[in-house]
Amino acid sequence: MDVEHLERVLIRCRLLITRGAVLRLGPRTGADIGQNRAQFIAECHNVYKKAARILISEMLRIQKEIDQLGGGRDHELLDRYKYWLRILEFSYDSFIWIASNHDRSNVTKIYKGAKFGSLLQQNIQSVIETADELNVAENVFAFPLDFSRFSCIGDLLRITRHRAGGISLDFIEVKEGELNERILKVILSKGEEGLEDLFHQFGEKAVKQGKRMLKQERVAQRQLKYFDAAPGIYRGPDENRIVSELRIGLEDQFDDLIEILVERARQGEFSSDVVDDCLVVTALDSTSPQRYNVTDFSSRAVVYSAFLANEQFKNQDELSDAVQNITFIDWIEALNSAVCIPPLLRRPLRTRSFLDLMSGRIQLRFYLDPTAFLQLCREQKLQAGFIKKKITNRLKTSGGWRKGQYPIFGGRALGYVAGNFAGVIGWGILHEIMFNWRTPGAIARHLAHSSAELQQLGQSPVGEHARRNWFSERDLEVV
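and the corresponding structure tokens:
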């Protein structure tokens, strides 16, 4: 595989997923689609099946290449294949978003955790075959979940259109072999009480498999308990769950600015801009070293003039070092982020811009000034600030923070206080701005809204973990 082939795959799948049904059915108005909704959805599922088969085939092909290169010395080629595989996984996640009705809250409930291991070392072939069998039915779209960028709560997701109306989702776990079938029968009939029977009938190995099945069921039930739940506070005997909606409209996105900056970078024009007085966005043309270096310099000048001009420097060398040490975040790091990223294939970009960003021909990078962002939060009546160094160090130790788990600025984390609750602003919030192109102002409003919901719970943090990670407003520094 080469980059040209990858781009052809992405273009084809993007067309199938976003416009395939409309193109196959011919020109349709919104009214036409509403009157023939069943036919339209059926055609959507047809093109989704085709796109899924293409992406699965390409991912298995790349995975085979990766496994063959695993012990070799061509690290550059290996890294390139891993990067391409991650792009295809992000593209495949389009189907999870479709199944979730594009509700990010539902998407996160399908994800279970980080993904490990090679696709070829799993029972992936039997899952693909099961999906193919289910997809014979015209009213079904089934797709394996192992091709997502995260580990999911099942092996397979089936979307069924019912003739009487309505759509249902089924999460399916695929197991092979007669022993698994017997273990499943015992588990279904007796639950945990059946583990002892498994030991007497099949030995310790069967007990371990039975425990894994029970754990998978518990995780799925817990994740799906609030699937499709409306925003609000849900009180239960063991926990209180807040389902919060990120209330963001088109006016709260800066997607159109991205398109403008990418085009300016291609033309060799000034391609930096500031969003909400706290975020610098820059597009750089990496195909031209001269253009890249000029844009790199100009973007650092923008950051300096916007946020560092009032800093006191002893001499010219100190100023030069400060400008050179400005740290940007590359948008392509989104591929390794734990934040919920909307499908790459559905980004509101022209095809050329989409491919230039994917290939790295255009680099997109961000600088978020923490002081200006915290000020934006405080304008929304959110008690936000830098957490004092002493308190940040205590939180690191008592909370068991991993290195790089939270953004730290000058030894201080970012935090906010809402009544009896205290929260640390993590990378997920900042990535929401830089990777999902949400305006900082919209994120500040969402944090303030979520904080108001927290206060409605009307109780102090409970449990040892909450006490270790608690701080108050007096522990915040407001600059």
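(Above: one complete record from the training split.) The first helix runs from residue 3 to 25.
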